[in-house]
Amino acid sequence: MTPLLLCATMSAARPAARVPTIWLDRPTTEFISGLPLGNGTLGAMVLGEPGAERIALNHSWLWRGRKRHRVNPKTAQNLPGIRALFFEGRIREASERANRDLGTFPDTGVDPYQPAGDLWLRLKAPGPITAYRRELDLSTGIVRVSFTAGDGARHTREAFVSRADGVVVIRATVGGGARLEGEVELSRRADPECALTTRATASRMRLQGRFEEGIGFCTEAEPRADHGSLQPLADGRAGFAVSGASSLTILVAIAEAESTHSPEEQAAARTGRALAEALSRTAGDVRRLRDRHAAAHRRLFDRCRLRLPDAPGTADLPTDQRVARMKAGVPDPGLQALYFAYGRYLLMASSAPGGLPANLQGIWNEDLRPPWDADFHHDVNLPMNYWPAEPANLSECHEPLFDHVERLMGEGRTAARDLYGCGGVYLPLVSDRWAKAYKSQGGWSEWTGAAAWLAQHFWTRWEYTRDQEFLHRRAYPLLKEVARFYKDYLVEDPRPGQWHGRLVTVPSQSPENRFVGGIEPVSLCVGATMDFELIHEVFSHMLEASQELDVDAAQRAEWKRILERIPPLQVGRHGQLQEWLEDYEEVEPGHRHFSHLYALFPGDQITLEETPALARAARKSLERRLAHSGGHTGWSRSWVVGFWARLAEGDLAEEHLRHLITDFATVSLLDLHPPRIFQIDGNFGGTAGIAEMLLQSHRGVVRLLPALPSAWPEGEVRGLRARGGYEVSIRWEGGRAVEATVRATRAGPCRLRPPAGQAIASAREASRPVPVRLAGTREEAFIDLRPGRPIALTFRPAAP
């Protein structure tokens, strides 16, 4: 049964769903206020003004490559001496030596992600301009711009990046008997390190670039006009003069290539084929192109929907005005539901099978030197991009992350050996499309947790899908590599006292924080808490996976001994979860990172039910951070939403979700990092946080509405995914669940926890009653499920 048929088993007596749309009544020339389109490989940002409209273009594989042949130095021989200094208490000296002598390169950064050029539509539109509207229909992935020119002619523009045909499509029309006049052009901002060539033939315009290190690209477009003429521009630019056209359709293809000989020509051959194939499949019919794209888009987008009521008087307001009203204190649950839909849309648009993972800016970038190179930051940002992939029912979009990690493995094994003298795999703090494992962030890079954090995503995929082949072929081998590294990297603490003989990590950092007495910008020490949380997770997952696969039984005792010998999590003098093995005082108590709370979310070592004392300590840490203005970036604030959801504090989660939307978003809802830097991770973290408010499934229990805020008294969510291979839909009224549907991909009992104060009244498979077996406290129940056969649940008040 498909997700849509599953949802149809729930009551049909509900308001019609509004098409999820971001729309604005003013144009913009600011890139980060544009409307983003993408198919996972090609990206387009739609912006500009009537008369000068711009479609900024990207290709996910187009990066500079000056550092792609870099080789790590051999520094493992320096590690014992550095460790000795740490154990002697000479922390600053040891830290400085670690940063200097363990292989960090002096020049900061990896190779930057690059723009592929701009398509300009300079079509005459005499003023004054009225009735302007630009909108992004999230359900179809189509941008539409419309306005009335001073001569009364109604202009429309439509753009999409075809998920079916692999090209960017732009269509411009004008009504009322008027005609399109002006020019269209491909160009790219000046770049002294990129040799550009432009030209227009009788039917196509082409922009080619070659970077000095042998990376080339081509952006090629074919325009077609109705009832008018197109003439190549005579000045050598890649463009056409448009005259007398009632409509104009442009197909754009983008490609990149790496070669020592004419890489831009290789890229041009690829764009030529892409255009030819798209035209062959559709005969250039824009309706067929649109329909094929929208159908492919909907197959992903329609799997999961969240409906929350719009605030009175806000549903027909432009999105930026709704945000402003929310900031002024007007509740708008519908805007929060739109933000959830937008996060799913952005992941679909920036991450698709066969491509690269979404970078710091997803897939959209206009800068030659983007902030942080628009790289893959492994210490929260890249993982956060994929937090919603499984719960929000976009499992395919997770694939590029898995591919990225596996591309890094060869370099990572060499790095583990050369940098630390360890087996297994070491992955760096940051990386790029070239999948190199070198340290590129002076003062920041001395961190060994990236491989473990990324391995969590492999485990998460297994938990949600129960795909035995994935566990056997991909997740378990990675876990073994990470575990082997830690087995070699962990060292006995020789110091007398509490931790004598315990296995500790050294050097160690809590990304990217510092403590009094440590060095800047990031302090190093013996044993940051996050290291032990990651190690606990890796070896715990290893034990479970080996049992599931019935392999490596002889090694389990050793893995258990390692778990027993790492230090337990500690509660500090403020009642907080300690961030380091020693109870250091923080230099910046409101730091943006919450690394030591990883075990609360996205991990599950700390839970309200199983580790209440640690949950209280984690809460104290969170409260202290926020009391000192923590959560002051978009991604940081979005993480706070997830924390409060795991702590079953729906109102606090919703409060910080409001701050995320009102304080850390552009007018088009793209996430911001201060001062005003587009960084997409907050969009994805917020989306995951909303999913956690509505459904949680860690530690073997599927929890319905575990953190429902009072601001959402009614609503409905369809098609969320839960660990164990379940798909869940829930409808609620008056803050209480009314009905829910659960569908399984495999047979077996599902342990369900109803919302607080409620119990499961009945369970039915079609017309067949299904037994509900109580399972301990909190009205939890076991219900036996069969693959593909949805179970409908109703609820009653829980017994006093």
Summarize the structure.
By secondary structure, the chain is of the alpha+beta class. The chain has 17 helices and 34 strands. The strands form 7 sheets. Strands 1-6-7-8-9-16-13-12-11 form a 9-stranded antiparallel beta sheet. The protein has a 7-stranded antiparallel beta sheet with strand order 2-3-4-5-10-15-14. Strands 17-26-27-28-34-30-31 form a 7-stranded antiparallel beta sheet.
Could you describe the 3D structure shown?
By secondary structure, the chain is of the alpha+beta class. It has a domain at 34-64 and 112-302: putative glycoside hydrolase family protein from bacillus halodurans (Beta-galactosidase, Chain A, domain 5, Distorted Sandwich), CATH 2.70.98. The protein contains 17 helices and 34 strands. The strands form 7 sheets. It has a 9-stranded antiparallel β-sheet with strand order 1-6-7-8-9-16-13-12-11. The model is unreliable at 1-9 (pLDDT under 50).
